[in-house]
Amino acid sequence: MFPSFVPDKARPLATRPHLIPSIFLVCLVGTVLPPSLANTLSVSAITLYLSAQIPKATSGKFAQDYMLPIQTLLLITQWLDFCVLHLPDEFSRDEDKEKIPKTWWEKLSWSWSLNTTYRGIGWNWKVKNVPEAAPLSTKKWKFVATEALKACIWYLLYDLCRYPFTVSLYKSMSAPDIFSDSLPKQAFFALMVGIMNYCALNLQYSAGSALAVATGLYTPQDWPPIMGRLSDVSSVRAFWGKFWHQNLRRKLTLPFNLITKYIPIRHGTLVSRYTQLYLAFITTTAIHHIGAMNMPTSSNANNLSQAAFFMLQPAAITLEDFVVYLAKKAGVKESRFTRAIGSAWTFVWFTYTLRFAVAFFANSGVLSEEVLPSAIHEALGLIKRHSGGPGLEEL
Questions:
Q1: How far is CA 349 from CA 125, 186, 338, 352, in A?
Q2: In 253-308, which ranges are E strands?
Q3: Which pLDDT does position 175 carry in this prediction?
Q4: What gap in Å lies between CA 325 and CA 258, rounded to an integer?
Q5: Tell me: the pLDDT tens digits for 14-55?
Q6: Residue 9 forms part of a structural domain
């Protein structure tokens, strides 16, 4: 029933699109069921059985093999948070005003909202640093049109950043290790991957928010921006805490919250601050590493490149915290100049460390896949067919 923890590289092909929806549905029902040991064990057994199917086959797509166990872990972690480590009645929506759902339909609506609101928008557990939502005066169709336009722009920016890979050595499975390339090229490709991920997340979010509001199921206020403002980023800590998306914040704080149930750690102390920091990055490293292990095209050495990227981040935050402490002791006050220095340091740091993430994705074949159809590719194809000009391969 349960395969080896480390999947076989030569496993059969099976797409299995039902797995994630099935696991989500089980967790959704588990949230509706009355809290009891029998219900908890039943939901746990079913989710473990469904999760055990993941390493048995490959989807044939590198990115899907990578994301499948990650999505599964996030769903299970969310269910454990809401229904095992806490009681469901600890959570309430602002619109309910502490009204307890009684009918099955009310419970299902409540459960759906709880399990699809990763940042706690409109709930009593909303995470920190979520950007301001659209004003109440925002018209529904204006919001939909704006987000649809944003989705188109994000797509074009993604395609533009993706194009250099399609004409580089990294477009094939036999791609060389990025660290064998020149340092300027390493920096360039690292930045392109970072911007691609940023555009891809915003593209999905803008398209999803436009669709959700257009159907009338949600309001514009339910969809604040998924990212913070770039102008707020003047440190590595600010990048992760204020700018990058907050969808994982609650899940990454679970280990610390669990530990403090049994070990008294006073909040506000250095021990509390850095225990939370390192546990959060250890958790996200573990989640992404399990996704990497499910890829038949990757290796243990290659997977460690991704782990290195994540685990270097708390080290950098610790270093910059110490530098800020020394600067304050020396009487240096925050100013435009100090923020500019911090922004430059952050840019250099991510340009350097993103190379490890790029190495992982390139060596595992993810960068060789076309996730979305390329407008640039199609445009160059039209040029070649209708004017005799160069096509994609000739440029």
A1: 32, 13, 16, 5
A2: none
A3: 66
A4: 30
A5: 888 999 999 999 999 988 888 888 989 999 999 999 999 999
A6: yes
What is the Cα–Cα distance from 17 to 296, expressed in whole angstroms?
18
Contacts 24+ apart (CB under 8 A), 13-18: 13/57, 13/58, 13/59, 13/60, 14/56, 14/57, 14/58, 14/59, 15/59, 15/60, 15/64, 16/53, 16/57, 16/59
Domain annotation covers residue 316: no
Q: Is residue 357 part of a domain?
A: no
Global pTM reads 0.88
Given a cut of 90, whether residue 365 has pLDDT beyond it is no
Of 47, 44, 68, 48, nearest to 57 by C-alpha is: 68
Is 67 contained in some domain?
yes
- Rounded Cα distance between 111 and 43, Å, is 15
pLDDT digits (tens, 9 = 90+) for 282-295: 999 999 999 999 99
Backbone angles phi, psi at 288, to 5 degrees: -70, -30
pLDDT (mean) for 190-215: 95
Structural domain count of the chain: 1
CB of 220 closer than 8 Å to CB of 134: yes
Host domain of residue 61:
1-126
Residues in the chain: 395
The string of pLDDT tens digits covering residues 245-294 is 888 999 998 899 888 888 888 888 999 999 999 999 999 999 999 999 99
Residues 6+ apart with CB under 8 A from 356: 305, 306, 308, 309, 312
Q: Which two tokens mark 328? A: 């304050």
- Convert the pLDDT of each residue in 322-347 to its tens digit: 999 999 999 999 999 999 999 999 99
